[in-house]
Amino acid sequence: MSGSRVRAAVDWFAPLLPESRVALFRTVCYLFVIVDVHLIVRDPIPLSRHPELYRPLLLERMFSLPQPSVPLTVALYLIVIVGSLVAAANRLPLAAGLVVAAAFTWWTAIGMSYGKVDHDHLALIVALWVLPTVGTIPARWASGERSRQAGWALKCIQIAVVSTYFLSALTKIRSGGWSLSSWPESSILMWAIVRRPHGLGQFLMPYPELLHLMQWFSFTAELTAVVVLWLRGRALLAAALFWLSFHVFTVAVLYIHFAPTVICWLAFAPLERFGPWLSGVIAGWRQRTGRRPARHPVPVFRDQAVDGSG
Prior knowledge:
This protein is mainly alpha-helical and about 300 residues long. The protein has helices at about 5-15, 20-40, 45, 60, 70-90, 95-110, 120-130, 150-175, 190-195, 200-205, 210-225, 235-255, 260-265, 275-290; strands at about 15-20, 145. Strands 1-2 form a two-stranded antiparallel ribbon. It is globular, with a radius of gyration of 22 Å.
């Protein structure tokens, strides 16, 4: 492989991106983890009271993790909450990040060891494990530095986001006997609406052909989702808006959300622009209230197009 190809590969897998983008994403990500343990994967503690229902996942079997108990799940809960608060403040990002990654991964595995495994947490789990790799750098919301550490971490999260859709399409193909038409031509969406008879879905039940068309559309979108990794500017923005609209639609039709995946779409966004904007808002508020402005100005980024590589 020539030197230019190696450099191109490095630039793609580990582009130079603002560390402030990671700092802002870290804050949002860890605050969402706190929301997650209360609203999404919220039942490991009560489930641990029923050991007869526990079916450990492959991860738990590989590491010989002990069977969950109430003291264990309560301890995991406290570790996740405290660690997330510390990491969200960009304090001890390496130590706190690794602790939260391990504790939340175990917490989520326990929650999914009593029933089906939800693939909406793939990107979030990956994010929690790669964010600490940027922990050796004191990244701040207003940092003007760029690094390949930041670029590599964000690229891993981006790959995990699109893999959520692509792997879902492969699973549909595998479940149908490796036939591209089996899942889209099935009545799975009708079955899901009958199983959850509320929302917009109940108005679509009289139109089975439309449901088949929707299945083909979603299946094709999932199968080609990896294209997003090479989009830039307005094309990337359009793709992000499409998938956000897709998730809004699934909530309206089936009451199924993909909040953990949606949060991780922020890895594509130029979050570093939020720091200067917030500083401007604070400076304006201080000026209106007669308070003294900040002593050190915040650097303003002058990136060109909105894209996933900075």
